[in-house]
Amino acid sequence: MTPDELLTTIRSVRKRLDLTRPVPMELVRECLEIALQAPTGGNSQGWHWIVITDPDKRKAVGDYYGRATRAYLGSGSSAGDLFQDDPERAATQRRVSDSAAFLGEHMGDVPVLVIACIEAARLPEGNQAGLWGSLLPAAWSYMLAARARGLGTAWTSLHLVYESEIADLLGIPANVRQGVLMPTAYYTGETFRPARRQPLDEVLHVDSW
């Protein structure tokens, strides 16, 4: 697929993750090798990648994730609660919320869970863009590499409600912070296409707001 096809057809895969088909570690490593080519501030490369395949640990992470998801869905500010004054967009938001609920119930069943982390003894006060800007591009590169290899992923940070508990479970040091959880599995179907987005001219500002 061309770069444009890759970038416009990558979707958050939740309901269509194949929960029964194993994912070879070699394939995950290929995606992570590509992720390591992403930029970092000062070429610091302070990232770490936790790849979870052990069934018991996947279940434990999934249990925390499920609890966080249920709280999110009941918060009144979940995806499904947004844009209620726009019937067409509200329908899309309800589908997103429904798929989020599915993933919340099945996170522990996904064959591979990848948590992207970064060294940070403490979180910066104020603007944290410099810190997370040295991790999140690499996580996105991982997801793109996975898509190009027939794997589905989803970007989620709901697990961070239980960041310390998951750190204890996985032995993550205190000076390493988690940034994003990416469930990874083969996907079912081949109907990925560009999503409906706001028109560019509604969000574009040239030279001033």
Q: How does this model look, in words?
A:
The chain has 209 residues and is an alpha+beta fold. The protein has a single domain, classed as 3-Layer(aba) Sandwich (NADH Oxidase), CATH 3.40.109. The chain has helices at 3-9, 25-35, 55-73, 87-106, 129-132, 136-148, 163-170, 200-203; strands at residues 47-52, 112-119, 151-153, 176-186. The termini are far apart.
Helix/strand layout:
Layout: H1 3-9, H2 25-35, E1 47-52, H3 55-73, H4 87-106, E2 112-119, H5 129-132, H6 136-148, E3 151-153, H7 163-170, E4 176-186, H8 200-203
Antiparallel strand pairs: 1-2, 2-4, 3-4
Task: Give a brief outline of the structure.
With 209 residues, this protein is α+β, with helices and mostly antiparallel strands.
Q: CATH topology, what is it called?
A: NADH Oxidase
Q: Overall pLDDT, averaged? A: 93
Distance between the termini: 36 Å
Gyration radius, in Å: 18 Å
Shape: globular
Could you spell the SSE succession in H and E letters? HHEHHEHHEHEH
Q: How many H/I helices? A: 8
Question: What key phrases describe this protein's structure?
Answer:
single chain, 209 residues, 4-stranded antiparallel sheet
